[in-house]
Amino acid sequence: xxxxxxxxxxxxxxxxxxxxxxxxxxxxxxxxxxxxxxxxxxxxxxxxxxxxxxxxxxxxxxxxxxxxxxxxxxxxxxxxxxxxxxxxxxxxxxxxxxxxxxxxxxxxxxxxxxxxxxxxxxxxxxxxxxxxxxxxxxxxxxxxxxxxxxxxxxxxxxxxxxxxxxxxxxxxxxxxxxxxxxxxxxxxxxxxxxxxxxxxxxxxxxxxxxxxxxxxxxxxxxxxxxxxxxxxxxxxxxxxxxxxxxxxxxxxxxxxxxxxxxxxxxxxxxxxxxxxxxxxxxxxxxxxxxxxxxxxxxxxxxxxxxxxxxxxxxxxxxxxxxxxxxxxxxxxxxxxxxxxxxxxxxxxxxxxxxxxxxxxxxxxxxxxxxxxxxxxxxxxxxxxxxxxxxxxxxxxxxxxxxxxxxxxxxxxxxxxxxxxxxxxxxxxxxxxxxxxxxxxxxxxxxxxxxxxxxxxxxxxxxxxxxxxxxxxxxxxxxxxxxxxxxxxxxxxx
Amino acid sequence: xxxxxxxxxxxxxxxxxxxxxxxxxxxxxxxxxxxxxxxxxxxxxxxxxxxxxxxxxxxxxxxxxxxxxxxxxxxxxxxxxxxxxxxxxxxxxxxxxxxxxxxxxxxxxxxxxxxxxxxxxxxxxxxxxxxxxxxxxxxxxxxxxxxxxxxxxxxxxxxxxxxxxxxxxxxxxxxxxxxxxxxxxxxxxxxxxxxxxxxxxxxxxxxxxxxxxxxxxxxxxxxxxxxxxxxxxxxxxxxxxxxxxxxxxxxxxxxxxxxxxxxxxxxxxxxxxxxxxxxxxxxxxxxxxxxxxxxxxxxxxxxxxxxxxxxxxxxxxxxxxxxxxxxxxxxxxxxxxxxxxxxxxxxxxxxxxxxxxxxxxxxxxxxxxxxxxxxxxxxxxxxxxxxxxxxxxxxxxxxxxxxxxxxxxxxxxxxxxxxxxxxxxxxxxxxxxxxxxxxxxxxxxxxxxxxxxxxxxxxxxxxxxxxxxxxxxxxxxxxxxxxxxxxxxxxxx
Lengths: 493, 493
Prior knowledge:
- Two copies of one chain form a homodimer.
- Chain A is of the alpha+beta class.
- In chain A, about 20% of the residues lie in helices and about 30% in strands.
- Chain A folds into three domains: about 1-95, Immunoglobulin-like; about 105-410, Glycosidases (TIM Barrel, Alpha-Beta Barrel); about 415-490, Immunoglobulin-like.
- In chain A, strands 1-8-7-4-5-6-3-2 form an eight-stranded antiparallel β-sheet, with helices on one face.
- In chain A, strand 4 (about 40-45) and strand 5 (about 50-60) form a beta hairpin.
- Chains A and B meet through strand 27 of A and strand 27 of B.
């Protein structure tokens, strides 16, 4: 790393310096006035044939940062620009080296319906939901991280703002804006402490290989953050983008249940999307999550569907319809949660949640998890994190393994009988899922002359029973007459 | 009963003579030629202010009958008409007395969405399906009747014609037409033996208080009965109507899976309906049952929807939509069967079938049962009858009791939360059903000042637990956190 001859430039590396790591320029500047609104700052980062622009942000105490995630190894140079003379025109260069192990770069869409890391490795999203886990204080947050570490989840939906809702009455330790509960908030003065904490948690997730599906707005609010003036929304978004878009594991979710945010108009969501996509040169995944009506996922900036089920009974079974309709990856973030609360969205069984995961998977979609068991201390995983008590996570892990073992680590639907969805690769690999049905056997008819090994998979008991011999043409596989069975046929020759 | 002075008239009573019983005029006529096509016969039955016309039928051996179900007590007279001189112009009269105990008359539609017997008593249809039970020989047929006797079912779907399908390869003992397997059938010469047997079974059902939902055509056929010429269809229908419409417990189902009968055109079904409604003065219930596309239940002759679920996952939960769409009773004859065969229509659990019954019931519909457990002798209840082995019938009986205990012995949907359907009478009676959801409690909010008793109903374990005290306004009911629970609130004062 080389420095220019500029006394104010203090360039240090935050976290990793490798490819897809977070490179950070640290600067000193004014602390008077309102640095959030009165000062412009940014830098251009240049490699052999590319120039990338990134805005900087104010971190309090006269500290300014410009962050950048280099997506190519090799030499990069930069030059700052600012309305403040001493932060303007600073130049430097650095070498982007091999990625730190475990950092495969940001996730993006691959082959219309799927995802991969920037290094080309397939990414199979297996998401959970802990909306307000970063607002629970150190002890619980560390427990959540510990739980995640041994869980099957590699994506988490989480809100920037604190949450006010059923089972969410506690105050956060720190707030996103200057001000106080008593005196109100100054939406034009962000609280760096709050965002420093948030980004530490995002970095924690990154080290666990977990994508942070960051919810930028949500309607469960008693502080006013859901109804800020448009200028405050925009300032907040620009601040978040400049601080966080250099984290390789961030996704943008404009809102949870955008359609419940009555103060927002359709054009607001489009403006937010424009601000984010303009300010995030890494092109992180971005979508908007519904309560009732879906967002229009055909908008060009929407990278994937972020779906809450719109029917109480039929959820991930509609994946095919949604794939056909939007021609983008179908991520069903909320299909109801395993639990026993008094609300229909949070009291299905582990069996039913696991079934919904499978129904989505064999149709080429990705279903998300949440857990809402009543707790005397009101620590429900879906919002606060903590411990997992349910029966589905282990089975979801089993499914993840099955998907990762499939060709290309993905499942695409194949034509099948009306009563048994099937995924795989024609002539190579077939995964049939029987759901709640309980056949004692099933007849199959594949092309003659190709031999397959056959496995009977119990998706609930997590067993794979290889059937003796190989199978060809028309054949019968015996099944145990229980729900939640699958059959996998893999070409043998 | 008085007779005219006519040597050929031999009037006897078949079965009951009471109201809604079967009055029968027995005549002797020619046995040469083709009496089925060459001879017309009928009678007019007259009471104080009504005249009802009924066609007669040939029963072989020169025996002719004209049947009539009197729907009013008192004096009736009749006069025959025929193309055969000695059967023409015979007059007589008879007294229609009180109905035989257990005969409440035919069922008809009551209050748009429900049913009642002709005597005014509510009829809550709780149907099962044994398509081909009357073609199985005496021993099995009697076992079926014995099973039905101790079952909760008061309606059975059954085919006139024998059935050829999976698990249905045996030949019937007797065929509906003259001819043989080897030499083919004469569709213009019906086999009285066949129909005599059928009507005995219908009478057996009547004695058990069971409605015979008689399927007139079906596509599961290897004999040709599904593809007869139109003239044969019409002759067959006129024969069936003249023989059977005087049975109080008959319903007409034009077809099972009418849309799989490729040789029939839309206008055929309308012609069949016209023949039946013209020939059946009792106005028995009549509908047409789908496989894929629903029949157009808005046709004026259709008395009720006779539905097969059109979605693998969402079945009786669509009852509300269907009620609103057709404004007629919603009878879901097939929502899938309890069993373990290799077909998706026949391998759901007893839990799931019972759940579908409840989901339909609390939306003001009527779901039907079927059972398809694999059997080494291929005796599956859904087709051949025999014994019931499943877990759902007992629970269906429990539901029947709950419905019959409800005001008016019926359930109508009430406005409710999105996640808990509710049926009952506003301000009087509320039945909430939680389905697969498993809340540990539920908050209710009813109008203040009215007190209710509350019961927690376990629809699977068939228990009703009265909660201590009474409840008013906003209150909480604790629940066990299991699936398949209901809460019943009954006005206490």
